[in-house]
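Consortium newsletter contribution from the modelling node. Members have asked for a concrete example of what our holo predictions look like. Here is one, prepared for the phosphoenolpyruvate complex that several groups have been discussing at recent meetings.
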Amino acid sequence: MGRKLVAGNWKMNGTNADLKEIEALGIAWAAPRVDIVICPPATLVSRMAFALGGQPIRVGGQDCHAEESGAHTGDISAEMLKDAGARYVIVGHSERRADHHETDEMVRAKAEAAHKAGLTAIICLGESLEQREAGETLDVVGRQLAASLPDGATASNTVVAYEPIWAIGTGKVPSVEQIAEVHGALRAGLAERFAGEADGIRLLYGGSVKPDNAAEIFGVENVDGALVGGASLKSTDFSPIVSALE
Ligand code: PEP
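And here is the predicted structure:
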């Protein structure tokens, strides 16, 4: 198992003025014992990477197109993110699956594009409340895992984020038993398909992670870190979450 990872997803939030949050993080985490990634909107990737300079905090995109270039107005490719200074890219976030009708096949193609560009793909999956209540969670995430991860996934190019849709931005968090059950099933699914790489592919939990619940979540077996939305926008919220993982 490699280093643990905390990734912040700023979603459609942030302008140049918010780069001060990155300066504060850079000062607080000059030599972190865990990997730290911030995924700002595409407009800030380049400036954030520049602002971080040689510091260990990495920058990621929130999505990429599956193709390298071409007639896709408004989209950006994994190569462009790499060129702008990104090292990671989130693919398959539930908001993109919902808002842009992204299927597992599309997510897999995006992850392949990320790998080709030399980026680490943070591949998101997770069940809806309806699926959870119908007892379908393990089937749903198992199918998503199988269909969204490319065959070339390795410990260094792939991170999986389990994000129950009903926990994102709601303040609701699954019980530690529920998180353990899903993460255990995901680890077993990875082991079946990726053998030697499976233990190294980091499994993040995402959905209403906050400073006051992070330590409990990080104590769950097979949780290798977190994907954090709302609480990643302010360094005063994000830093205690990083501390809880250290
Ligand atoms: C997310 O958007 O990936 C997320 C986990 O959001 P939040 O932490 O705000 O629930």
